[in-house]
Predict the structure.
Amino acid sequence: MVLSYAGRMWLFVPLALGAEAPPDSDIFLAELDLAAGKVGVPVNITNRAGYDNQPAFLADGTGLLYVADVNGPTDVFRYTFATGASTRVTRTPEAEFSPTPLAGGGFSAIRVSAPDAEAEPYTESQMLWRYDDAGTAVSAVFPAVRRVGYHAWVDASHVALVLVGPGAEPPHALVLADVATGALTPLAPDAGRSLGTDPGGDVLFVDKSVADAWAVSSARPGSRTLIRAQVPRNAPGEGDDARSEDFRLLPDGSLLMAHGSRLLRARPGATWETLADLPGVGGAIKRLAVSPDGKRLAMVVQRAGPPAK
């Protein structure tokens, strides 16, 4: 696949590492009080050895979706707040990642058709699919678009995609895809894994095009990219694990970002402040999800040691 961006050609080549083992991680849930600027005590809702990641809150407020690698390729699970229990939603030979609830019911997810493959076959098999509420794969959203790493819906007709291709220029290209036509409009040449949208329809992402100056930015077709906030740099003594990449736009317009064991918040026009420091979670905070009402926070914690019992 080749795309043109500002006079440059985007050529995507195979992943260098292929289907390597995912990191050991857990999902923590906490109450969030934005008015008071407080985060409640995090509760580990997965608490097992293995990969539990990519939480996404259901629109009806009853729970969240996430993925886990139980006995094979990753599947989608549903955690229900009322019962505190998880149920398996998909059970497929393919691997699912990044489940995202859809307004009309069901969810979308990245589907890896060759989860045991290496390099090119693995990457080439990554596509965006729709699933119904029961976890049945309905159809590929873009049958001709492969190498989809991450996605975020802008509206029912458009979805932002990060097309992965480490080792190429650019390595992670951000595009806006039209559901009806399949047309791809380039937005940015090098985006991080965390995507979002704002009420105005802008796509939010971490711009990595300048290696030592990442920024949470916004873009839309035909407009120049705007920097919302510079990504905080690591302090002396902080390892690479603390480098910020995961963020969420909060209902009040401020940004929430993970930084090691800390949660940072930046209000519009202000600098980053520490919202909470949570060393007790036992590792670096990665993926974030915020409930639609802004009252719950889900955090993925990559373990630094053996799993908690």
